[in-house]
Design goal:
six-stranded parallel sheet, alpha/beta, 42% helix, methyltransferase, four-stranded mixed sheet, 2 domains, SpoU_subst-bd, 60s Ribosomal Protein L30, Chain: A, RNA binding, Alpha/beta knot, single chain
Length: 267
């Protein structure tokens, strides 16, 4: 059992909370029973180290069984060691070190996708992770981070995705114009979400949403620039029927992705 929270091994795991360390090592930090379970189930080859407290394993014995089933060694640690490794203030008893595994943009569009979410300079980790999760839930084929978007392997992004990064291909570091060119070449209609656009209900009526679609979601503070909106086939807004001043980006993205998912399945 690892007992010293100041040991070099513990510190090397804790450093993965920093982008510089993640970039240098090609690794990232995974926390919590749900995310660890998804990694062991869908991408066990990515899990290099797995740590857990005895108390956490008593609550989740299935994780030990899953780790054994895919030949991932599980190491016991004290609560103090787990606290030192984890990025969260109140960790849930499990930490894993995983290899990063971004998908190439060309692979995203080579597989004839029908629904893709593109995040242009989305900076908030919670929003980014939640959109990945929503895209996964809506059955999207991929997610693409473009421009100076938040790091996909930021611990908050990983946590917010709740394991969905292991389910749906995600490409990172791409240029928006290049991505949209590839999307059109693959036969996708490009829809940009923006407050200046057409009502989403109108697109439903027009039958646009049933087509293979790439949705573009912009930065939380400024949205998409005018020149970026001009790259889209249609600009779309999610209508607000109540008195809310605006809608959270991840919530709006979820609505758009599900509208496409409903339309594609009904057609």
């Amino acid at each position: 059992m690892l007992e010293n929270p100041r040991s070099p091994r513990v510190r090397s795991v804790a450093k993965l909370a920093k982008k510089a360390s993640r970039s240098e090592s090609g690794l990232f930090l995974l926390e919590g029973p749900q995310a660890v379970s998804e990694a062991l189930r869908f991408r066990p080859e990515l899990v290099l180290e797995l740590f857990a407290t005895p108390t956490a394993l008593e609550r989740h014995p299935e994780i030990a069984e899953a780790a054994e089933g895919v030949d991932v060694e599980l190491e016991y640690v004290t609560e103090e060691v787990l606290d030192a490794m984890a990025d969260t203030v109140t960790p849930q008893g499990f930490v894993a070190v995983c290899r990063q595994f971004p998908t190439a943009v060309k692979e995203v569009f080579a597989s004839s996708p029908k629904l893709v979410a593109i995040l242009e300079e989305v900076r908030d980790p919670g929003n980014a992770g939640t959109i990945v999760r929503a895209a996964d839930a809506a059955g999207a084929d991929a997610v693409v981070f473009t421009g100076r978007a938040v790091d996909l392997y930021n611990p908050k992004v990983v946590r917010s995705s709740t394991g969905s990064i292991f389910h749906v291909p995600v490409a990172v570091g791409a240029d928006l114009e290049d991505v949209l060119g590839r999307a059109r070449a693959a036969g996708l209609t490009v829809l940009a979400a923006d407050v200046k656009g057409d009502d989403l209900l109108q697109l439903r009526t027009d039958g646009v949403l049933g087509r293979p679609t790439a949705w573009v979601f912009g930065n939380e503070a400024r949205g998409l620039l005018d020149e970026q909106l001009e790259l889209a086939d249609r600009v779309v807004t999610v209508p607000i029927y109540g008195h809310a001043e605006s809608m959270n980006l991840a919530t709006a993205a979820s609505v758009c992705l599900y509208e496409s998912a409903f339309a594609q399945r009904s057609s």
